[in-house]
């Protein structure tokens, strides 16, 4: 009877952020074509993306809320007062194709071209139903900045 209280079983998941340099180059090239400033890698955003990718993989569910709302996840890593957005996906075999699929989706593309973005974090979780991808984009801290989610 206690097993019913334990929640769904966790899946075997491995996670990595090793795709970040390739993602950074592709995103910056795309942003340059649109006349936008480049972004840089950020360890706090990486941590938020990693938490999200792992949570999606463990639950087997594509959801922006599975690891908590983006604002909560960013607060947890000390990122506040920023413009921020998130792209997620599952099943895309590599980072190049993940970015191309986001470019083909108007809401995800809008996030890639977020004018206020100055930094990103990207993570991939591998396991059943994956890979599970999470990309967090944010601007620099600015008191009173409104969230863009």
Automatic annotation (TrEMBL):
Residues 24-130 form the SCP domain. It comes from the Bacteria. This is SCP domain-containing protein. Signal peptide: none annotated. Gene3D superfamilies: CAP. InterPro entries: CAP_dom, CAP_sf. The lineage of its organism: Bacteria, Pseudomonadati, Pseudomonadota, Alphaproteobacteria, Hyphomicrobiales. Pfam families: CAP.
């Amino acid at each position: 009877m206690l097993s019913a209280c334990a929640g769904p079983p966790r899946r075997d998941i491995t996670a990595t952020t090793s795709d970040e340099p390739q993602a950074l180059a592709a995103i910056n090239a795309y942003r340059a074509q649109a006349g936008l400033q480049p972004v840089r890698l950020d360890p706090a955003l990486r941590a938020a993306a990693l938490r999200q990718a792992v949570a999606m993989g463990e639950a087997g569910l594509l959801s922006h809320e599975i690891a908590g709302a983006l604002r909560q996840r960013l607060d947890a890593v000390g990122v506040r007062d920023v413009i921020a957005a998130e792209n997620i996906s599952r099943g895309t075999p590599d980072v190049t194709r993940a970015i191309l699929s986001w470019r083909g989706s108007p809401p995800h593309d809008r996030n890639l071209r977020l004018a206020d973005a100055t930094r990103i974090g990207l993570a991939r979780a591998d396991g059943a139903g994956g890979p599970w991808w999470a990309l967090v984009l944010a601007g620099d801290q600015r008191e009173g900045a409104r969230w863009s989610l």
